[in-house]
Amino acid sequence: TVPGVGIIGLGNMGGALAANLVDAGLAVVAHDALGPERAPEGSTYVASVAEVARRAGVVVFSLPDGKASEQVARELLAAEGRCARHVVDTSTVGVTAARTIGALLGEGGVGYVDAPVSGGPAGARARTLAVMYAGSRDACAEVEPVLAGLSDRRFRVGERPGMAQALKLANNFLSATALAATSEAVAFGRSVGLDLETMLTVLDSASGRNTATSDKFPNHVLTGRYASGFSNSLMTKDVQLYLNAVGEQGGPSWIGAVTAGVWERFADAEPGADFTRIYPFVEGS
Ligand code: NAD
């Protein structure tokens, strides 16, 4: 039932996801507003969203935010001779945007599976990316071969679009807070003369252990390779979306507000920097 798989957005994450779909043996039609440069070998680049919509039954989005996803969803719906029947949105768009885009596509007869991802471009290529998804049973069944092409780790977490976004925002809030807090704690230790590597070895073996001590610091800070493929502007967007969503639910977001402030400060000072550079930023502040 899937004549071809489309992918729109070939950035850090979309480029890796597109390559996975090709490797899975699917016929991949790819598009990005910036042109064909990052379309993987084995895919067919086309010059518009409309062309993707004409050639693919399922279309994967990997776009910066909800605004971009909504715009592309509208272009897809407007395509003459459209064959696209389902959208799998792997972008982090937030809860409200996922509901809006799901309703918009639904009115046009296109199913929407809200499917944000966690694990970065390297995790994507290793097929260890966590794909959390929400959508109707029928829509999820239709897009299963595409989800399977994206990653080996997939979790259906709900029936309604927006539910997977809520989980993704909770995840990124935790990841953002852990990295910001660890940066502050490590900078403090260094200021009293502790050795960076020694501190990390101990922290990662003690009760302060978290994804910053187990992954971000050893793989990016200690190596000096600040190239995780995830920008501080996208992380700032995610924490802000988390804060908005918690606010809409009427819940407390004491820590969320502090974390959002730290990331905003960093993104304002170094717009577009890799998010792991928050450590040198905090240490130098
Ligand atoms: P990116 O900025 O590297 O790539 C986004 C791509 O979308 C760009 O190539 C851009 O040209 C394209 N684009 C934007 N608007 C478009 C439009 N209207 N039509 C066609 N193409 C358009 O971002 P990324 O890091 O690849 O992230 C993509 C999404 O995945 C974001 O929502 C992000 O929050 C999420 N995400 C990223 C990571 C990561 O580690 N990079 C991890 C998990 C989730």
Automatic annotation (TrEMBL):
Listed InterPro entries: 6-PGluconate_DH-like_C_sf, 6PGD_dom2, 6PGDH_NADP-bd, HIBADH-like_NADP-bd, HIBADH-related, NAD(P)-bd_dom_sf
All residue ranges annotated as the 3-hydroxyisobutyrate dehydrogenase-like NAD-binding domain in the record: 162-279
Domain 6-phosphogluconate dehydrogenase NADP-binding: 5-155
Swiss-Prot/TrEMBL keywords: NAD, Oxidoreductase
UniProt record similarity statement: Belongs to the HIBADH-related family.
Name of the protein this chain belongs to: NAD(P)-dependent oxidoreductase
Source taxonomy: Bacteria, Bacillati, Actinomycetota, Actinomycetes, Pseudonocardiales
